[in-house]
Every structure is written in structure tokens, then in C-alpha cells.
Specification:
This protein is mainly beta. The chain has helices spanning 157-160, 166-180, 185-193; strands spanning 3-5, 13-17, 26-28, 35-40, 47-52, 56-61, 69-72, 77-82, 89-94, 98-103, 113-116, 125-130, 136-141, 146-150.
């Protein structure tokens, strides 16, 4: 709870602490253009996502200086948001009017869904939000309009599974992180010292 991240026009992401107000704990050389959004994962305490005008979405473990995943969406990315029901699902919106939905547990390289929601070159989509209880996302554009979209059945199956838990979601993301990067001896020691909390509470359907 004491860590927070900042997206900047200088392309970097400073990692800060409420305990140290006069300095950054670290700075990630994250993107090649302005950073538009930085979001902590709703389940795994080390993971965050960032998006930028440089067309990319990046997934990070805050213990590492390099991203775990990088996705080129072919246009400026206005927002990135993690889903409230799965540690591996997130969405992003791009200036060409597209919504991109990813599920890293199903596909680690491409979106599982991609859809145009506004006319190209006339309106820029710059905000995205998942409903906390229903399979619906809201999308906002630079003209002040908002629209809602219903997720397809394959993207909302987690909402119907009452047995899945926060603990299971953390383990699912942890498995992905292990696949993409093996820590050095020094990094492994740091990770051992900072244990990941595994609350037993389950998500509501």
C-alpha cells in the first residue's frame, strides 16, 4: 500500500514510496513517448501495466527494470486497465478507435479480442473501465461520449466460476512470470525476503 507509480511525459515511470517523500525508489525507462496510464494488477502485488503514445502496452514486475511482456498495438494507446475478476485479463484502447482485450493465460502474444468502436480519424478512444460485477466494459472518447460493450462468453467465463479465488489468481500470474523470466541469485533472494500475501477471500460472481 505504500508504493505508487507515476506515468510521465518524459517517457519514464518513477516508483515512489509514501515513506520517502524526497526521492524515487527507482525509475523505469519505460517507453519512447509519453506514458498515458500505469495500473497495478488487481491481484498480484508486484505486477503493473503501462501504456504510451509509442503504440505499446507493457507488463512489468516492479522488481525488474525490463518489462515481462510488450505488445505493439499499432497506434497510440490511451488507456490500459486490468480486469477485476482475473489476474491475467486486461484491456487497452487505441487512437484508431479500437478496444483490445488480452488474456495472458490463453494467449501471450496477441489480443483474444479486438474490436472497432468508433469511426477512425474522427474520434479518439482514451478511457476504458471494467464493470466490477457484470461482463460489461465502458469506453470513453475525446469528445466526451461513452458507450458500453458486453464481453463475449469466452471473456467472461471467470465471472461464472464461483470456485476461483484471489489465491488462485495470484498463482496463475506467478506461473506466467516464472515462464518469461528466471531471476538471478540476487533477485531471487530479494523475492524470498518479500513474500507475496495470499488472502483466502474469494471474488463475488
Amino acid at each position: 500500500d505504500f508504493l505508487f507509480l507515476l506515468g510521465t511525459e518524459e517517457r519514464k515511470i518513477p516508483k515512489c514510496s509514501k515513506h520517502y517523500s524526497s526521492q524515487y525508489l527507482d525509475t523505469y525507462a519505460a517507453h519512447h513517448m509519453a506514458v498515458y496510464a500505469v495500473r497495478w494488477n488487481n491481484f498480484h502485488p508486484r505486477v503493473f501495466a503501462s501504456c504510451s503514445a509509442d503504440w505499446t502496452v507493457k507488463i512489468w514486475d516492479h522488481h525488474y527494470s525490463e518489462p515481462m511482456f510488450t505488445f505493439d498495438l499499432g497506434n497510440s494507446v490511451g488507456d490500459v486497465v486490468w480486469s477485476p475478476y482475473s489476474a491475467t485479463v486486461f484491456g487497452a484502447v487505441t487512437d484508431d478507435g479500437q478496444v483490445h482485450i488480452f488474456d495472458l493465460s490463453q494467449e501471450k502474444y496477441e489480443p483474444v479480442c479486438q474490436q472497432s468502436v468508433v469511426q477512425k480519424k474522427k474520434t479518439k478512444v482514451n478511457h476504458l473501465a471494467f464493470n466490477q460485477h457484470y461482463p460489461i466494459i465502458a469506453v470513453g472518447d475525446d469528445r466526451g461520449n461513452a458507450l458500453t460493450l458486453k464481453l463475449s462468453p469466452n471473456l467472461r467465463k471467470c465471472l461464472k466460476d464461483k470456485a476461483y479465488s484471489r489465491e488462485g489468481e495470484i498463482a496463475k500470474m506467478e506461473k506466467l512470470l516464472e515462464l518469461v523470466r528466471q531471476p538471478t541469485a540476487e533477485e531471487a533472494k530479494t523475492l524470498e525476503e518479500e513474500e507475496i500475501p495470499l488472502p483466502a477471500a474469494t471474488m463475488e460472481s
